[in-house]
Structure formats: structure tokens, C-alpha cells
Design a protein that fits this description.
This protein is mostly helical. The protein has helices at 2-22, 24-51, 68-76, 78-110, 114-125, 133-140, 148-155, 169-183, 187-197, 202-210, 215-226, 228-243, 247-253, 265-275, 279-304, and strands at 54-55, 63-64. The protein is flat and about 80 Å long. The model has no long low-confidence stretch (mean pLDDT 84).
């Protein structure tokens, strides 16, 4: 039995080695990316996981503390619990909504003529690459009577006194969600546009022959199954973006925010990693965020693979 297993293993190894030699030019082309990905992604992730079990302040050698960082993080760190709550609220609201908006807008824009389609694509994609976008929102949600939101609400008699949008804990999360949705039509939106452009037009003709009667059936049975790779890519990007919100919060409501109402897992990570230099604790935060992202991606991808079936 063992001799048979060894023989099969040797046969498979020889076959695999033969195939690799035949496709060696492909491996040469992939080598730069693989080397960079391994060096700047895989190795740092593994190092971060190891450092999370230590106490490390960059001045002294790491000291192994076991699961102390994780116990403190989950049981004693009240601010981290607030950060998890805020992050999950932001992810649950902005993730699915921005994903659906990106797909709907891409679907509608794809029906336009080429020049108009290119212009509208730029219009919807521009907010995600606008460097000073936060200045606009700071003006809109300024806490005095000159803020556009307060001025408009007071003009229509909805409020009598200006609202401190960026300092009142009751409104801060709402503002962050609104701005994040405005910024979220980025890479996913472009991926959906590309996916819609790549759908084979003959499938629609075949579908009409097979009994598809309206655009909704066409979308569900032809368009979505034909662009599953782009849908999966968009889901990964939206999940990663929604769980990694930090810049919007820091720019709009400050760092730290009032009562930590705008605090997220990433801002907590920045606090301990870049300000306090408690790298062991920061690595534990990063590991938990990594686990949450991987779990969310696996769940969403499992769901998306069933679309159109």
C-alpha cells in the first residue's frame, strides 16, 4: 500500500515538474509580482501575527506574553468594543448599500452611448480620487449658521438652532456614513463597468429565444452570471473598504472623536501602532481585523456564487 502511494506521488511529482518546465516562461512573467507580494504582504502578515503575542515597543526586544494582548483587547479595552460596534455599523450600512449603488449605476451608465458613458463614468468615479473632498463636507456640516446643512434646515424651519454635526455624538456616525457612501463608488464601480462591457451580446439573443421576457430576467439569468468574477472582486473591495474606514472619521470628526463615536478598528490600530508604539497590542488589533475581513469575504463570496442559479 505504501509502495503504491509513493509510486503515485512520484508520478504526480514528475508530471507536475514536466508541466512547470513547459510553462516556465509563465512563471518567469509572474515572478516579479510573486516576489513583491510575498515580500510586502505575506511576510508582514506572518510577522504581525507573531508580534501580536509579544509586548514590543520598538525600543526593547519583543517579550512573549502569550494571549495577554487578546485578553486585554476583548475583555478590558472598552474603547475597542466601541470601535468594533462603530466598524460593524459602518460596514453593514456602507458595504451593501455602496455595492448595490455601484452595480446599479454601472448598469444604467452601461446603456448610454460611448462618449456619454465615458463622461458619466468619470463623474461617478471622481469622488473616490478627489484629494480635498473632506473640505467640501466640512463646509456642508459646519456647526454654525454658515454651514450649508444648518442654513438649509433653518431656512425651511426644520431646526431653530444650528446642529453641531461633527461634535454631537448623535450625528457623527450619520455624517461618516453619508460621506463614505459618496466616496465609495471607486474600483468596484469600474470593475462592474468592465464586466458589463465584457458580457457576450449573443447571450441576450439566445435568452430572448429561450423565453426571457424583460430586462429584470435578462439581468438575473444572463448579466449577473456572466460577470461573477467582477462581482466577487467588487465584493472583496467593498468589504475591505467598509471595514477599514479611518481617514473619513479622522478628517471629519477628529482623532479621537467626542466619546469615541467616530472611532473604528483602524483608528484604534493607528492609535496604538503609530502614536503609542505598542506594536504587540497593535498587531493583535490588526489580526482581529484580518480575521473579520476574511470571514466576511468568505460569507459574501459563498452567497454571490449562488446568484443567477
Amino acid at each position: 500500500m505504501q509502495a503504491t502511494i509513493k509510486r503515485d506521488f512520484k508520478t504526480r511529482s514528475k508530471q507536475m515538474w514536466k508541466e512547470m518546465k513547459e510553462a516556465k516562461h509563465l512563471y518567469v512573467l509572474m515572478a516579479p509580482f510573486i516576489i513583491l507580494f510575498f515580500t510586502f504582504t505575506i511576510i508582514p502578515v506572518v510577522m504581525s501575527l507573531g508580534i501580536s503575542f509579544t509586548q514590543f515597543n520598538m525600543l526593547e526586544a519583543p517579550r512573549f506574553v502569550g494571549f495577554d494582548n487578546y485578553i486585554k483587547l476583548l475583555l478590558d479595552d472598552e474603547i475597542f468594543i466601541i470601535a468594533i460596534r462603530n466598524t460593524l455599523v459602518l460596514a453593514v450600512v456602507t458595504g451593501p448599500v455602496s455595492y448595490l449603488l455601484a452595480f446599479v449605476f454601472a448598469w444604467l451608465i452601461n446603456e448610454l452611448k460611448p462618449k456619454l458613458r465615458a463622461f458619466m463614468t468619470l463623474v461617478f468615479y471622481a469622488p473616490s480620487i478627489s484629494g480635498n473632498a473632506f473640505l467640501i463636507w466640512l463646509l456642508i456640516f459646519s456647526g454654525d449658521v454658515h454651514g450649508y446643512a444648518n442654513a438649509l434646515l433653518m431656512q425651511f424651519g426644520i431646526i431653530n438652532n444650528p446642529i453641531l454635526w461633527l461634535r454631537d455624538p448623535n450625528y457623527m456616525l450619520f455624517v461618516i456614513i453619508l460621506v463614505q457612501l459618496w466616496l465609495s463608488l471607486g474600483v468596484s464601480f469600474l470593475a462592474f463597468i468592465a464586466g458589463l462591457q465584457s458580457v457576450d451580446k449573443t447571450l441576450y439573443e439566445a435568452g430572448s429565444i429561450d423565453g426571457i421576457k424583460n430586462r429584470w430576467q435578462e439581468l438575473w439569468f444572463i448579466t449577473i452570471p456572466s460577470m461573477k468574477p467582477q462581482l466577487l472582486f467588487g465584493a472583496v473591495m467593498q468589504i475591505t473598504t467598509s471595514l477599514a474606514i479611518a481617514e473619513v472619521s479622522m478628517q471629519l470628526v477628529g482623532f479621537p472623536s467626542v466619546q469615541y463615536e467616530g472611532h473604528t478598528i483602524v483608528t484604534h490600530l493607528i492609535d496604538y501602532g503609530s502614536i503609542r508604539f505598542d506594536l504587540g497590542y497593535a498587531s493583535a488589533i490588526a489580526t482581529i481585523l484580518f480575521i473579520i475581513m476574511i470571514s466576511a469575504n468568505l460569507i459574501v463570496q459563498k452567497f454571490l456564487r449562488k446568484l443567477g442559479e
